[in-house]
Design brief:
heterodimer; A: 231 residues; four-stranded antiparallel β-sheet; globular; B: 496 residues; 2 domains; 50% helix; 15% strand; elongated
Chain lengths: 231, 496
Amino acid sequence: MSPPVLQAKALAKSYRLGKNEIPVLRGIDLSLAAGETVALLGASGAGKSTLLHLLGLLDAPTAGEVHYDGERVDQRPVGQRATLRHRQVGFVFQFYHLIPELTALQNVLLAHMMATSVWSWWGRRKRCRAEAQALLEQVGLGERLHHRPNELSGGERQRVAIARALLAQPKAVLADEPTGNLDSNTARDVVDLMFSIQRQRGLAFLLVTHDEKLAQRCHRVVRMQDGVVVS
Amino acid sequence: MIAAFSPFLALRYLLTRRINLLGVLGVMFAVWAILLVDSVFAGFVTTIRSDVRNSTTQLLVTDLPHDTGYDAVRLALEAERDLVAATAPRLRHHGMFQPRRAPRGGERRVESSQVDFDHTENGFAILLGIDPLREPEVSGVRGWIDRAPTEFAERGIDRPRATVFDESDPHRRERLLVPDAAEWLARKRAGLPIEPHSEDHRSAWPGALLGWRRIRHAPQLNPGDPLDVVVASFPSDGKGGASLHTHSIPLAFAGWFASGHRMFDETTVLLPIETLRTLLGHDPMDDGAIDLVTDVAVRLRDEVAGSGLVAAQQRLQAAVQKVLPQGSKPCLVVDWEQQNEVFLSAVAHEQGMMQFVLFVVMLVAAFVIYATLHMMVTQKIKDIGILSALGGSPRAIGTVFLLGGVTIGTIGTLLGLGTGIVSALYLNDANDWFYATFGLELFPRRLFDLPRVPCDLSPSWIAKVGIGALLLALVVAWLPARKAARLHPVTALSHE
């Protein structure tokens, strides 16, 4: 049996505020298997986004471990963590987080440029460009390749963000309230798209959401409260 | 390894933010100013140093005790055969000179014991007594004679070249005697007693050469015109005090010289050393009289140069010191730079101060780059979070902003170098055009009395300015880049 794509073992995170230590996560155990979709539910301040950041190696835990494919990764040097993050996970954020100076196509291409040197990029750019274009067409933005984010609607921007998260072919996608900034119709379309791609590629999905209906579409729902998993 | 997204994003950020143009223009202006202003100043300094060098002897034995004789020093120097090629005596003193004018209808002739302050034709001067037979061996005095008519011609003044050094008779040359006919004519103009015919006259007055810049004091002088040179002494009056005595001697104006050294040309009068000795009370007919000198000029053999010069100075100083009276204070043997140390160090200091000011201009341009990049990092905090989330390492993220700063610095530097070089090459043309069109002289040519603005632009200086500007851009770009690299991804992502 293959190890989980992502695994948190007794993960804890505290923040220091002056002399006080504020615990946000208090020993979380969570696994995400290949092809599995997991929804993370909980009230604001439960620690959902913090858990996502720790699993994505954007932050370091105060205690506990993060494993990728069975190997501990949270203690690796910062450069290695960046590379692992690039290969293993893709992020989708509530507010899209696109680079405003770049077009839709360029925003997606960024994902390939992350771990490629200038010299290697020069030989691969045409192939990468074709892949990015195909992905944008797959998410329904074939006609909007050269539009900047301020020329796209909210739903279109989130589609670009999804395409960007998928370009490097990660094993897992970590989505933090992906529909939180969209109207209900657009949100539905985006969610349908995400699950469609998830099925096609066999990706693992970890979705932070307040939406119970969205959570019910996942294989598993994990509820958090005050930094611990309650169910 | 430079990640591909670093230069890609750096370029995008630069192209979409027009404020970066400010950084480019700032660096361009600073580099242009440094190149142009420093090249002009360097040109002036090169010209000044060259002129000072031409007006000075290679070595000068100076600070000799009072009443030092030339012969003893000469023999001591010439004993160093492997070093010394030629020597010449010099005697320095201060005095006044004034042309004599013919009395006209009741006008009283000015006697040499009186100083006529109503006229600008007199003036204080440094009297430099030279041996006209030896002096050409140690200095460029013949070249000074040749240069004077050129200096006048450039200012629209016509003056003949002095001929006193062309005399074939060494006895006449030794006294700088002007041609007989010229002196006869001058005496006639001055209303002095003369022979009926010029062919019967024999020049009697020793000649005096004036620095060409003194022409404003004596605009009407012709070769042979009588000059009175006056020196003062203060002998004891026998009652515990001192009295003022003046001594004067008639000389003939022998012509102009132009050494190129402004101060030297303004203040110095060259006359035969024997004449000055006589003026100072030394009787040349007295066998016991010493051949008084204050300095001895030395020209070294051609093979003595560079690092050998210092050793030569020390050897010659030791050789001369041996022949001086015991207990004398040490004499000095100084080269041309040491002879003009105060002036040259003032020029060098001025150049250093000017370069410092220009460096400050460059610093201001660097601060502009720093400010625009710092602002960019602050405005791009969220982007930094995104790049981290996508797998960008802190180093690669910092490189985005570092490359931005380096690009601004490089473009600004290249533009500055280009405009600076072109400006320096066509400086005089531009100066002429501005003057013809607007009546404005950006660089006053007469500031140092030079016909053209000198410009000394060396390839090594261009390289130094270019590399310095690039390094400065790199340094000031590094700080904001470091800030970007050290931003916590989570903090950056949640930045409002």
